[in-house]
Amino acid sequence: MTGTKKITRPRSSFLRRAAMSRDKVFLIVEGRDYDRAHYSRICESSKKIKDAGYQVWLVEQIRDEVTGKSAGGKPAVLSFFDHCKRGRSLQLSSPLGDRLLFFCLDRDNEQISGGGRRNPHILYTQNSDVEADIFAHGISEEVMMSSLSLDRWTARKALGYLGDWRLELAVLWREWVELCCLAKALDARCDVGFGRESSINPDKYGIVDPALAAAARARVRRRSKLPPSETSKVEAKVAVKISSAYATGDARRTLKGKWIPNFLAWKLKCHFGENPVAMQGFEVSIGRLVMHSIDYSGKWVAFYHKRIEAML
């Protein structure tokens, strides 16, 4: 059995279509899992953006005419951004009026590691990525009841046990977060990075093992693209920025989104023990349930609204 071929549109065709559209705002997003729904709800909750009209596109729906390929992810969004910037197509003029392109990127702790882009057409997430943005709003009783098929009293008791579980993970994995930021800052390709869970905390969520941490740091330094003296300077800067983030209450923002539901599931398994609870598939389903419960008219969404509305 063969699946339906993915339909993509060449970049030039997409830009022509956008220029002639009745909608004024076009958001290009990285991934399939959460991005389209998340940014659609953000736009829908702004009267100004909603009245202007908006569309949200996966970057993999837009084909690079030079290579003939399409792909998802941050590099693809940045490639299309660079293409539009070179062609002066970030803002499109037509008889219907100007059309605006926004490129939605995961922050990926670039405020610590460096490498971020500054442009009014680039929208970074508040937290490390979209999934982390979603979990930043916490878990409600209703979500807990639906995700685990619990009665309200049991769900409430579980939430009490969890406490500030995101901060707990940020503190527990602080050294791992710092090493991941350092690896990114040094462009050190090794087994330390945000795509992996901590290898320096025994059994994943144990207290940091100093020997494992020292060995991981040594591997990062060995793979650095910079000379030793420059590597040490970058290492010191990253350490200062991590300390600042944790001291100013931004520790939770450093967590990679995919780490969060796994830790939440571990915490709940510790709480429930051998009690009969429907945990199968929890790590996959919980994100969408949380997103569905978010109040997209809350004050937090102004972070995004003001960046888009400022261009309208």
Description:
By secondary structure, the chain is α/β, with parallel strands linked by helices. 50% of the residues lie in helices and 8% in strands. The protein has helices spanning 11-20, 35-44, 47-52, 74-86, 110-113, 130-135, 141-148, 152-162, 165-172, 174-185, 210-222, 228-247, 259-272, 282-293, 302-309; strands at residues 9-10, 25-29, 54-58, 62-63, 91-92, 99-105, 122-124. Strands 2, 3, 5, 6 and 7 form a 5-stranded mixed β-sheet that branches. A two-stranded parallel ribbon has the order 1-4. The termini are far apart.
Briefly summarize what is shown.
The chain is of the alpha/beta class.
Layout of strands and helices, then pairs:
Layout: E1 9-10, H1 11-20, E2 25-29, H2 35-44, H3 47-52, E3 54-58, E4 62-63, H4 74-86, E5 91-92, E6 99-105, H5 110-113, E7 122-124, H6 130-135, H7 141-148, H8 152-162, H9 165-172, H10 174-185, H11 210-222, H12 228-247, H13 259-272, H14 282-293, H15 302-309
Helix pairs in contact: 7-8, 7-14, 10-11, 10-12, 13-14
Features of this protein?
single chain; 312 residues; alpha/beta; five-stranded mixed sheet; two-stranded parallel ribbon; 15 helices
Q: Cα-atom Rg, whole angstroms?
A: 21 Å
Principal-axis shape equals: globular
Structural class: alpha/beta
Largest sheet, in brief, is: 5 strands, mixed
Q: Give the integer mean of the pLDDT values.
A: 94
The topology string of helices and strands comes to EHEHHEEHEEHEHHHHHHHHHH
Quaternary structure type: single chain
Would you identify the regions where 5 or more consecutive residues have pLDDT less than 50? none
- How many distinct beta strands? 7
- Cα separation of the termini: 47 Å
Helix content: 40-55%
Report the portion of residues in β strands.
Answer: 5-15%
Figure out the total of helices: 15
